[in-house]
């Protein structure tokens, strides 16, 4: 864990190294992924089953790739009712937020009499990748599938690896709640390839979304263009801005909630209160003594964690804008000025009663967020990932007279004569009729 | 050119081969691009100047990479006043449409008393790639730079190669009109690398946009993640739906306006009127006799063009949804029903007086559009490319009591105990105070 202080002369260097310390290139897996994708593209289900049986120690055939409704029901029956209730609370809130997010179409007539506008349309089909094994998070199923459903996507196909044939009941319960009925027991680059190119069993989709390991991320990068993809998730991070009026244990747990995800995760406390800084540092150490995932959390905190003391909250907001964190908590008395000053963050959790874990499950906004400083230029998953815009123009004769000549001039200047003629023959026709 | 008729038994096969005929993989240039990017990343300006001098037969140094304001003024002075006026008409209309496109922030309080919302923020900086030589289109400078400007991007850097040292006056005039003052005479993968990683002379940007050749496209693919990118443009296409009440020459020119761009471009006429089909086919042949870019247009039309006769306009719209064309013209008497039925198209040009060339220059909506069937899942360039969303939640004690327990259950089920504790310690604290 790094201790930094903006008042110290070495702050800039220390802060720069904090930002850079997770920049190392991820493992290069492009070669194997290219091979897997080519095989799935060429040999479809056969290749898909071979890879699945090899990597997941499974025994699938094209006939058993799809998880049956009966299997889903059997799995869901194992989920305790209280947990199904919690899933329902989460799903309802996620649904409600994403409905509010849906944009409106636009249409207007301008001064030249031209009708202009844009229209939003849902994608026909999307493929949802869900990691298997320990990283199988039912909450992520809700966060990926519900926005697609709200956006009006007609077909949602889901791929989830089932290593050693083991189904995750809560993942299937989440899929059922989110209205996903087309589920395949495949994972890895081969699953991405199947969804992008299609096989005899799995029809191709228009866009592939969802988190995954390095192979899945590389596969998404390689199929980009054939299908759309969401952003490629890197290790995630939280910045907590906390003043002196906090329970240090609560702040420590917020930092550790990020750290327990992944040894590469990054948790940063920024505080104007040196006393709080020291208390939180001690509280982190105390919690690590009993936390079940202490090994992961400690590795993350030791290698990438930081406590930064600042002169004031404006300075804190400015640091946040350089970090562009995935998650930002504002655990301060008067959060509004800091909230306004922050420009780059995936999601902001405002006030002492809104820890980031609320947003992971039941807040409503999406928990799939831009990681590794990409909040500088990208956004969390949303209904916007499942709809696209069509712009339109409608010109009447009088409007064409007004704006057409400029188009002719520019087309001629660019040496595109058919472009120019396509406008000028219509203008000439109007002149003849006039 | 293919002649297809939906009433014929071989239609499905012919239509499928029409869709597939441009699917061949683009040239593999990933090896050389990886090397160029690594060199620019490692050696900055030195590598950038070396590649520029080699590929563009130039003689630049770090000190002369940037095009000076004086050079811009000198170049602009060469542009005829009428052309500057046309540029102004285009710029004003593009600006106006993209202003109308800006979305609003959202904020509301839900039943549980939780404040929820999302906020749009502009990117700090973007890099605009502009192709050089013959493909240097001033209209593209406007279409890329103006939305960034309207979105509120603070810094817009532009890279344009100047082979043999030749500046394109109209490109510089377009940049000046669009408010772009930071312009570098570099192109290719090396320009993309410089914008993504930064050099001593060119500060890194957050997102790189703009069309380019195969090297530029591959470079954008490889820097994706370090920076954002726009979609990777493939060969473009138009579908014209025309009824019998058209001037066949106008329709032929619309088809050729697409074909004259690129031998790989695709122009498709869909008509319920077999007489019009024949007339347009003859008109295309006639125009090709005199069109300056006839060689390119003929190659495109012969290899990828098509005339499809359909039973009715509904069938036409359904074909469009499978093609998902970049551009769609509705040259029909009553366009509204067909307009409503179309789900997948980059931009729609409605009515006989709105040829697609209007949209290329002066319509207002962006002419950077999803090509090669990607309108199934993506959209044209817009202000949305230059802003991003931050979601936020603010929970009061009473709201936390309502929604917190479900978060605790789900976090425990996912084995993330610090997540669960970060909520439960706050709930316990509230209980103590109650």
TrEMBL record, chains A, B:
Details of cofactor binding: Binds 1 zinc ion per subunit.
Annotated positions binding Zn(2+): 258, 261, 360, 419
Binding site for substrate: 236, 258, 261, 327, 360, 414, 419
Active site: residue positions: 326-327
Pfam families: Histidinol_dh
Cofactor: Zn(2+)
Main EC class the enzyme belongs to: oxidoreductase
Biological process per Gene Ontology, one example term: L-histidine biosynthetic process
Gene3D superfamilies: 1.20.5.1300, Nitrogenase molybdenum iron protein domain (3.40.50.1980)
InterPro entries reported in the protein's UniProt record: Ald_DH/histidinol_DH (IPR016161), Histidinol_DH_CS (IPR001692), Histidinol_DH_monofunct (IPR022695), Hstdl_DH (IPR012131)
Pathway as given in its UniProt record: Amino-acid biosynthesis; L-histidine biosynthesis; L-histidine from 5-phospho-alpha-D-ribose 1-diphosphate: step 9/9
GO molecular function: histidinol dehydrogenase activity; NAD binding; zinc ion binding
Keywords assigned: Amino-acid biosynthesis, Histidine biosynthesis, Metal-binding, NAD, Oxidoreductase, Zinc
Signal peptide: none
GO cellular component terms listed in the entry, alphabetical order: cytosol
Reaction it catalyzes: L-histidinol + 2 NAD(+) + H2O = L-histidine + 2 NADH + 3 H(+)
Role of this protein: Catalyzes the sequential NAD-dependent oxidations of L-histidinol to L-histidinaldehyde and then to L-histidine.
Alphabetical list of HAMAP family matching this protein: HisD
Entry similarity comment: Belongs to the histidinol dehydrogenase family.
Protein's name according to its UniProt entry: Histidinol dehydrogenase
Organism phylogeny: Bacteria, Pseudomonadati, Pseudomonadota, Alphaproteobacteria, Acetobacterales
